[in-house]
Input
Amino acid sequence: MKQMKILGLLAFAVLAVVALVGATSASASKFTASKVGAKGVETTLEKYVFTITGSSIECTTYNVLGQTEALETESVKGNVEISGCTAFGFAATFTNNGCEFTVRANGEGKMLGEKCELVMTVNNIFAKCKGNTKAQTIAKAASFANGAGDVVATANLTGIVAEVTESSGLCPMTVGKHTNATLTGKSTVQAEGATVAWDA
Output
């Protein structure tokens, strides 16, 4: 099964609980860490499932690529490595073209970049699919709860704008622009040798 690396929508919930970069916002919610420079460690509790036109892409394993860079922050951004992804029984890949992703402690998620495009591809002898998402804001991308020195992040995004540009063979996706894609999933995020928390 192919491994894929993306910096993108599937990462919203995971990125939000590792305090990578501080920023100011009107929200009183924040993330805290007991020390700066602690490596993030993620454990997937429930598969991350991205659904578009009734078809789903499932990913089973996330690795957080980043470390805590602030003791207290209201907004974070970062990178993840994802593996174990399939789309209706076939291996799927994602390619990030110029996108940067941030999440606020109030749950808002943003995908930014002047020429930002996150491309999904399934390409084999049985099915060919291609789709993308571009810069956008999701008002409620994730919710959070505190564990024992870690944070549980739950993704439940709705209204994601995505476009399917190619669908042939056994690919079940419908070509065209869609405004009702969704993402669900759940993870626990820790920091090595430190504690992290969410403060509403």
Notes: Residues 4-199 form one domain. The chain has one domain: 4-199. The radius of gyration is 16 Å.
